[in-house]
Write a sequence for this structure.
């Protein structure tokens, strides 16, 4: 069954085409890697699929919900790890998780058990009573990762998950992604780290200038091979664009 | 190659221009000096027409300039968090001392000189130009305007240097900085006129060698103290707090199903100044108005009705409470959670009512002791609906980022106009009150109530408006 499905999604910002008729399908239990250069349209796609942005055209469905028609409902059902974002300055880490739980009606006992588990997994138990404004960049990233999974959503959108994490934590997070995916959940992972995509993702989409150039299943190929494939796709697309501009 | 101070000044001035451009509405920030001149001209014309004491206006102008200087000096140097809360991740060239091979003290000197020059051209010059009505319509000689410009620049430089010296000392010893503040306040209270005589403001009264020397040397001396004392590499420990969110969320019950109100209240309580900043800001407004209303008959030939006047100005000042409630989050934050912006604005309204109303009503109650119960009854009746109007207009016009948008010149002009539409009739009613007390009291209450309803309507549309803009990507 499809966890994410888009049809002909398009979005423009003035004269800039951010998404150009994007159609893709991601099934339950997949980890979909979204690769592309800066400005390719990755964040725009995630923002539309999580009900943070309305497309100019096209349709989308995520976890059985239409994020365009019912954006708040869509956000209730998915997890979101933003590329740039900070937890609220003057709540403690524990209070921020309570806030996130209050927006999704998570029971107190369930929340406590999940927070304890995450604090142990990412080693931030000693920071639970610290104001978020005083956390380091890496600690903030751990808090944001936790809040994205706190309600154990069926679909999670993740933008650059490993930023500011040390290598041990990076490995731990990657292993968690695999476990979560294998439990039948869906991850939509936007990243510039091609090796991470090759390692964790079951399916990869290469995006450039708002267009989906290619989809492939990296099973069996290493990061270098995927990187070569990425360069080849993007360079071909750039070449085509230059040809189109030549009178 | 060694970087020249001139080059640093040029780059820092460019950085400041772009910072303000982003903060205050892009290229429209270029209109800001015109707006400052227009507001100053309007105020000067009012004083001239009312045949008021121009010295009071000039003293007030220097007070505003000095306050701005104190604020500019501290925000630039210690308020990196404040800048980030306002603008997102922001780093100024000033903070690059650890990563670039530039002498930190040289960066500091360039930063201070740049601040004084930048504000002198973009703020103090238009402010002085705006005083032309005093020359045309009152008794201020034209030759005095250049001196006014010099004294205002001097007061600005002095206050920037003073706050910088204080920040510098604070990085060494908190006790010493507090002792210094106490000493300065005590000196001003004991013999303020003698202290002011050796500041640039003193040049307006008498140009003597001592005044000139004090005006020139005092800012330089304080600047040197700041540069010598300031430590770049200080670290602040992580702050912890007992868990209050869950308790507050439960106490608020059905009024706060998603925890939005509890979060906003904790933001205000835990940020600098705590809850006291709400009480202090309203108390300051009340104290200034109470003194002015008590002594105003000596300055201008009219005395507005105290209850109506204090309530109107306190309600206008409640904008700062809205600002504090919104200062530590933004639309993007809420869009990542399953909440509607209408629910967020509802929480902000409840927070606004919990913070601004009780404090304001308490000061109006205090006013009843000073000015009498009758006049304050009118004030109390108009205060709540006027606050609702201020909330509705601000939420609709500025959304969740009031500081950024209200300084976008055209938007700010729209906000000012919306405030004037309601406040000017009430001020006129306050001035004419003794002529028709009953009729004007009832009319004022009715007018304020209608304004409150308009504010309620705007508040209800604010969520839809800002959510629509955010989802379109045009926010």
């Amino acid at each position: 069954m499809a966890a994410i499905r888009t049809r002909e999604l398009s979005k423009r910002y003035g004269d800039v085409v951010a998404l150009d008729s994007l159609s893709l399908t991601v099934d339950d239990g997949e980890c979909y890697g979204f690769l592309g250069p800066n400005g390719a349209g990755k964040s725009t796609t995630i923002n539309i699929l999580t009900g943070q942005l309305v497309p100019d055209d096209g349709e989308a469905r995520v976890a059985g919900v239409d994020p365009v028609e019912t954006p708040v409902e869509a956000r209730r059902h998915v997890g979101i790890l933003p590329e740039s974002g900070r937890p609220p300055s003057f709540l403690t880490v524990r209070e921020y998780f309570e806030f996130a739980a209050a927006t999704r009606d998570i029971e107190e006992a369930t929340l406590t058990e999940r927070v304890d588990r995450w604090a142990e997994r990412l080693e931030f138990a000693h920071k639970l009573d610290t104001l978020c404004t005083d956390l380091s960049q890496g600690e903030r990233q751990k808090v944001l990762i936790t809040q994205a999974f706190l309600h154990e959503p069926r679909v999670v959108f993740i933008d650059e998950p490993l930023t500011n994490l040390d290598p041990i934590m990076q490995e731990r997070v990657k292993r968690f992604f695999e476990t979560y995916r294998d439990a039948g959940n869906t991850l939509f992972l936007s990243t510039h780290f091609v090796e991470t995509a090759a390692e964790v993702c079951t399916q990869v989409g290469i995006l450039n200038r708002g267009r989906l150039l290619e989809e492939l299943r990296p099973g069996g190929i290493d990061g270098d091979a995927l990187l070569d494939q990425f360069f080849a796709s993007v360079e071909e697309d750039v070449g085509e664009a230059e040809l189109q501009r030549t009178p | 190659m060694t970087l020249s101070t001139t080059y640093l000044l040029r780059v820092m001035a460019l950085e400041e221009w772009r910072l303000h451009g982003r903060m205050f509405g892009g290229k429209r920030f270029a209109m800001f000096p015109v707006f400052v001149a227009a507001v100053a001209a309007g105020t000067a014309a009012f004083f001239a027409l009312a045949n008021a004491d121009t010295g009071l206006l000039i003293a007030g102008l220097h007070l505003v300039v000095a306050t701005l200087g104190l604020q500019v000096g501290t925000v630039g140097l210690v308020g990196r968090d404040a800048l980030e809360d306002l603008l997102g991740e922001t780093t100024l060239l000033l903070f690059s001392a650890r990563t670039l091979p530039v002498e930190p003290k040289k960066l500091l000197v360039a930063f201070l000189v740049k601040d004084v020059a930048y504000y002198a051209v973009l703020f103090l010059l238009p402010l002085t130009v705006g005083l032309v009505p005093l020359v045309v319509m009152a008794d201020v000689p034209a030759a005095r305007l250049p001196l006014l410009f010099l004294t205002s620049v001097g007061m600005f430089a002095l206050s920037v240097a003073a706050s910088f010296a204080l920040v510098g000392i604070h990085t060494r010893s908190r006790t010493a900085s507090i002792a210094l503040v106490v000493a300065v306040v005590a000196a001003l209270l004991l013999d303020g006129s003698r202290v002011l005589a050796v500041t640039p403001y003193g040049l307006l009264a008498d140009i003597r060698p001592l005044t000139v020397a004090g005006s020139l040397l005092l800012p330089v001396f304080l600047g040197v103290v700041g540069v010598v004392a300031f430590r770049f590499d200080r670290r602040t420990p992580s702050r912890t707090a007992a868990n209050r969110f869950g308790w507050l969320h439960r106490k608020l019950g059905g009024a706060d199903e998603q925890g939005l109100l509890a979060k906003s209240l904790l933001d205000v309580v835990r940020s600098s100044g705590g809850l006291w900043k709400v009480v202090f800001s309203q108390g300051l407004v009340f104290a200034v108005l109470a003194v002015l209303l008590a002594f105003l008959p000596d300055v201008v030939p009219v005395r507005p009705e105290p209850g109506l006047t204090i309530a109107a100005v306190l309600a206008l000042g409640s904008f700062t409470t809205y600002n504090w409630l919104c200062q530590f989050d933004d639309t993007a934050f809420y869009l990542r959670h399953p909440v509607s912006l209408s629910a967020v604005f509802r929480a902000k309204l409840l927070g606004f009512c919990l913070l601004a109303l009780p404090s304001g009503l308490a000061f109006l109650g205090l006013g009843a002791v000073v000015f009498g119960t009758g006049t304050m009854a009118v004030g109390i009746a108009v205060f709540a609906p006027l606050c609702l109007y201020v909330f509705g207009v601000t939420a609709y016009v500025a959304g969740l980022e009031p500081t950024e948008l209200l300084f976008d010149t055209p938007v700010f002009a729209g906000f000012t106009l919306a405030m004037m539409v309601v406040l000017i009739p009430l001020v006129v009613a306050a001035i004419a009150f003794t002529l028709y007390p009953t009729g004007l009291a009832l009319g004022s209450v009715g007018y304020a109530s209608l304004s409150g309803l308009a504010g309620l309507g705007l508040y209800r549309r604010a969520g839809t408006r800002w959510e629509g803009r955010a989802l379109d990507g045009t926010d």
About this structure: Residues 223-245 of chain A form the longest helix (23 residues).
